[in-house]
Design a protein that fits this description.
Strand order of the largest sheet: 1-7-6-5-4-2-3
Order of helices and strands: HHHHHHEHEHEHEHEEEHHHEEHEHEH
Strand content: 5-15%
Number of helices: 16
Oligomer: single chain
Distance between the termini: 58 Å
CATH class of the largest domain: Alpha Beta
Bound molecules: 4'-deoxy-4'-aminopyridoxal-5'-phosphate
Number of strands: 11
Largest sheet: 7 strands, mixed
């Protein structure tokens, strides 16, 4: 909650108006500002920049009230005026409380932050303003030249990703993989030592690491194993308090491979509206064939969807993720993300990979991975050392083995790395590979 600023009641000589006119002028200013404060409904929708202006004007009004109060108290008819100011003061405080309620999940210092002012971007001009070297390296095969900084906030890339995910470009912020988006959202929304985030283990490890780096407390509400690792919505809601800023969900979930029930996610989003963000990490959604929750962005101002090119688009080495959210959230995070976050090499690789013919090839590969996933699952289920293959809609399988040590050793002998997830989920996680790699894996397991 943003604290209501105290109205200054203390008298300071320099605060007192010299003339009646000065008093009336200040009173008029206060009265003119109030209607703007009352119209808070659209403040968030109009963006974080405007919200910062409103906050500033509220503290301006508060200061003026203090001065009016001091002036009136000195006059013989002061009591009357004080009563009038008292009513104004109450209005201001109400406006402030309402604004705080609507913006409770935002860090006020991030709202007030002025973004780094980077060198202007205009490819039509020669750049003598960014202290770069005017020549390319001999080995530089890029279109734009690596001697130049990339676009500070890459609009063409954002537009291309927005088209891919079917959302307006102003709702999308590209980052260096979902890992950067996770870090960004935690830093922008959680105050160190005060706020907390909720995680549903077993799940992707970076949510916890990002929270710990930021100094946000981590509250864990495990997925319900005997319901196929389903979301415990009541448990999550019970764990939330006034300082809960983010609930992290992963669907399909890593490492369990199951998708969260959309109705359960919807209930969390609705119950936590105007209280906390619900971040839904859809890193593996292409392998599930499900529709992205980004389609319901308009109904949920507290929804953040994470997508990545690292999985279905085969660009893990390029490091590109997309954070999809309501415009005010995107604008807020744009102030926090470092400029030039996405390297030029990556921008060019993505634009080439997302051209239509490549996208068709990538979709065929996703279909192949899905078919291989089901084939490997069936083959493993028939093995004597396999206790259970958890149903998966991702590009990996979580598998319980009777002797996991022996399985890990057998995979290594076959020159395959598989992931030991015993600490988190009591099982091993196997990514779907090429048919040849999958066959080698199946052969290695007894
Ligand atoms: N989210 C999940 C659920 C993941 O499993 C991973 C990678 N293992 C990531 C995000 C990281 O994605 P990126 O490569 O885009 O940083």
């Amino acid at each position: 909650m943003i604290p209501v600023p105290a109205v200054e009641d203390t008298w300071r000589l320099e605060d007192i108006f010299a003339t009646e006119d000065a008093f009336l002028e200040a009173k008029r200013e206060v009265e003119e500002t109030l209607p703007a404060l009352a119209d808070l409904t659209g403040v968030l929708a109009r963006g974080a920049g405007e919200l910062a202006v409103v906050l500033e004007s509220i503290s301006g009004v508060s200061r003026q009230l203090g001065r009016l109060h001091a002036y009136a108290s000195m006059r013989s008819d002061g009591d009357l005026r004080i009563a009038a100011h008292q009513a104004l003061r109450q209005e201001v405080e109400l406006a402030y409380t309402e604004l705080s309620r609507r913006t409770a999940w935002l860090r006020p210092e991030i709202l007030a932050l002025k973004a780094y002012s980077h060198a202007s971007w205009d490819p039509a001009f020669d750049r003598l303003h960014a202290n770069e070297l005017p020549w390319r390296a001999e080995t530089d095969r890029t279109q734009s030249g690596l001697n130049r900084y990339p676009e500070p906030h890459p609009h063409e890339l954002a537009a291309c990703l927005a088209a891919l995910y079917g959302v307006p470009a102003e709702n999308l912020l590209p980052g260096r993989g979902s890992d950067e988006s996770i870090d960004l959202v935690v830093r922008a929304f959680c105050r160190a030592g005060i706020d907390n985030v909720i995680l549903c283990p077993p799940t992707f490890g970076m949510y916890k690491v990002a929270a710990q780096i930021q100094g946000a407390a981590v509250r864990e509400v495990p997925l319900t194993k005997d319901r196929g690792y389903a979301l415990d919505v009541d448990g999550v809601l019970a764990a939330c308090d006034a300082n809960t800023k983010i609930v992290f969900l992963c669907s399909p979930n890593n490492p369990t491979g199951n998708a969260m029930d959309p109705a359960a996610v919807e209930r969390l989003l609705t119950t936590l509206a105007a209280r906390a963000l619900v971040v839904v990490d859809e890193a593996y959604i292409e392998f599930s064939g499900a529709t992205s929750l980004a389609a319901s962005l308009a109904q949920h101002p507290n929804l953040v969807v994470l997508r990545t090119l690292s999985k279905a688009f085969g660009l893990a080495g390029a490091r590109v993720g997309s954070l999809i959210a309501a415009t005010p959230i995107v604008q807020l995070l744009e102030k926090v993300i470092p400029p030039y976050s996405i390297p030029q090499l990556t921008i060019e690789a993505v634009l080439a990979t997302l051209a239509a013919p490549q996208v068709i090839i990538q979709r065929e590969r996703v279909a192949q991975v899905r078919a291989e996933r089901d084939r490997v699952a069936d083959a493993l289920s028939a093995k004597s050392s396999v206790r259970r293959v958890w149903p998966s809609v991702a590009n990996f399988l979580l598998v319980d083995f009777s002797d996991p040590e022996a399985t890990l050793a057998a995979a290594r002998d076959a020159k395959l790395l598989i992931r030991d997830m015993r600490a988190a989920a009591g099982a091993l996680r196997i990514s779907v590979g090429t048919p040849e790699q999958n066959n080698r894996l199946i052969r290695s397991i007894s």
